[in-house]
Design brief:
It is a multi-pass membrane protein. The chain has about 100 residues and is mostly helical. Helices cover about 85% and strands about 0% of the residues. The protein has one domain.
């Protein structure tokens, strides 16, 4: 259950990063509200998961999911470049998350 919370919290991190982009520096009301709410729920879920999980692996998986989600959102929603180098960097993040999870 704790790892499920970390995964959902990581997905919420990707959402708040994306809505933060849409908030235009917190100048647009609804995207700003969405950013703050998803941020809070993500932090709370991570905090609850960390009651039973070790700090390093849980935090790294949370950040990794958020980073990958923001990477994908940037490509899909904002037309950011998809290059071999960027895909390789994302693959290294996934590999690092997998190794960290295995070490837990």
């Amino acid at each position: 259950m704790a790892w499920f919370l970390v995964i959902v919290a990581g997905l919420l991190e990707a959402i708040w990063a994306t809505t933060m982009k849409y908030s235009n520096g917190f100048t647009l009301f609804w995207p700003s509200v969405a950013t703050v709410l998803t941020m809070l729920v993500s932090f709370v879920m991570l905090s609850v998961a960390m009651k039973t999980l070790p700090l390093g692996p849980s935090y790294m998986v949370w950040v990794g999911i958020g980073a990958l989600g923001a990477f994908i959102a940037g490509i899909v929603l904002h037309g950011e470049a998809l290059s071999l180098t960027r895909v390789a960097a994302a693959a290294l993040i996934v590999a690092g998350m997998g190794l960290m999870k295995l070490s837990a």
